Amino acid sequence: MAWFDAFAKDYDQWYESKLGRFVDRIEKGMIESLAQPQRGEEALDLGAGTGNYSLWLADQGVHVTGLDPAREMLAIAREKDSDQKVRWVEGDAHDLPFMDSSFHLVISVTALEFMMEPQKVLREAMRVLKPGGRIVLGLLARESPWGELYSSLAAKDPAHLFAKAHLYREEEIPLLLPGVEYTLRKGLYLPPVNDFDEEEAFAEEAKRSRSDAPGAGFFAVRWDKREEEKG
Asked: What is the pTM of this model?
């Protein structure tokens, strides 16, 4: 059974909370700014889970394939996708069941943290990417209040969701695709607290993200595949 299957039933409760909605809005804004999804494009969502990003892309007119190894997570995603806008695939991101140069865009948001060989996953993502396409990742930052929270929860409970997560430091990002230039954006400066003023939090987010301040809880990263690359 995939690790996330055990958490599938309650996974989406996070997005129903005030803090969850805020975090989701910040992270989606960062991902969208780098991914720049276009209507009619083919996109692959690695670690699609219960479909949050797959359905978000599909609502923008993108042709989406959502891949995840967790059957129970995908069952929830399919149930949410009543219009069957997304092609859901149970599979392993380390060995993608797709032809070379199949997608304009590959995204993976808060999923690489749980993958055993992240470099292999990104090599596979680059293989299935069309020349001129882009990979966009969303990564949880270790050196932040959010990283401290997740690490402490994992240390206390070996069965916790984040017990198998590797949270990322900024200096690790170049090692994911060595030698390939990338664009990095940082965000999510609000600490994990339930009592906050949304307007003030958004204003502070905008201010700190523009100044590249330390302590961001989320990294958005983009790599582009050169036109002449074949795989």
From this structure: 0.95
Q: What is the SS3 assignment for 10?
A: helix
Express each pLDDT in 199-220 by its tens digit. Answer: 999 999 999 998 888 999 999 9
- Using alpha carbons, list the distances in angstroms from residue 87 to 21, 30, 53, 78, 80: 25, 24, 13, 9, 13
- 114, 85 in Cβ contact below 8 A? no
Strand locations in 30-181 (E): 42-46, 63-68, 86-90, 103-109, 129-140
Q: Could you read off the pLDDT of 49-82 as tens digits, one per residue?
A: 999 999 999 999 999 999 999 999 999 999 999 9
What's the Rg (C-alpha) of the chain?
17
Question: Measured between alpha carbons, how far apart are the two ends of the chain, in Å?
Answer: 31
